Automatic annotation (TrEMBL):
<protein>
    <submittedName>
        <fullName>Cytochrome P460 family protein</fullName>
    </submittedName>
</protein>
<dbReference type="InterPro" id="IPR032033">
    <property type="entry name" value="Cytochrome_P460"/>
</dbReference>
<keyword id="KW-0732">Signal</keyword>
<feature type="domain" description="Cytochrome P460">
    <location>
        <begin position="33"/>
        <end position="155"/>
    </location>
</feature>
<feature type="signal peptide">
    <location>
        <begin position="1"/>
        <end position="25"/>
    </location>
</feature>
<dbReference type="Pfam" id="PF16694">
    <property type="entry name" value="Cytochrome_P460"/>
</dbReference>
<dbReference type="InterPro" id="IPR038142">
    <property type="entry name" value="Cytochrome_P460_sp"/>
</dbReference>
Length: 159
């Protein structure tokens, strides 16, 4: 079991390392939204399993158009953005807190992304500069098809 976890972690890290140098043209079109910290906080999630490629303390933010659709349900309009900021999970005597920033993940609604449900997906390094996803169709969209009925969006606004 422990070997299986190690292999998963190694594969996830290898995929991130390899993909950082070879970004698909479509994923390169997902712009990093520098103004994301002024957006509304949607929810936070902690994924504490280090073998999970989404490990970390995740804070999700939405721009105005994404937030409105997220609260009401229904179709997300063009230009909707979600940004997830991942931080390391630090245990300080039983209190889990945010550590160093690990990466950003971005969903950007644009009809140009026909093969991925109208969403562009990308992950960026901790500085927000280097794109990390080589194939958004298998690296992101494949999981997001689980929530097709909610517009491919996992995060629901937390009141």
């Amino acid at each position: 079991m422990k070997l299986k976890k190690c292999l998963k972690t190694a594969l996830a890290l290898a995929a991130l390392s390899l993909s950082a140098t070879s970004v698909m043209a479509e994923s390169a079109k997902v712009p990093f939204p520098t103004e994301h910290r002024s957006w509304e906080h949607v929810r936070s999630t902690v994924i504490h399993d280090k073998a999970n490629p989404l490990f970390g303390f995740l804070s999700t933010y939405a721009n105005d158009s994404a937030l409105e659709a997220n609260k009401k349900g229904g179709e997300y309009p063009e230009g909707s953005y979600f940004v997830g900021i991942f931080h390391d999970v630090v245990d300080q005597g039983g209190i889990m807190t945010q550590g160093d920033r690990l990466k950003y993940v971005v969903m950007y609604k644009n009809k140009a992304f026909k093969e991925t449900g109208g969403w562009g997906f990308q992950a960026f390094d901790p500085t927000g500069k280097q794109a990390l996803i080589k194939d958004p169709k298998t690296g992101c969209y494949q999981c997001h098809t689980q929530v097709e009925s909610s517009g491919y969006v996992f995060s629901k606004f937390s009141k």
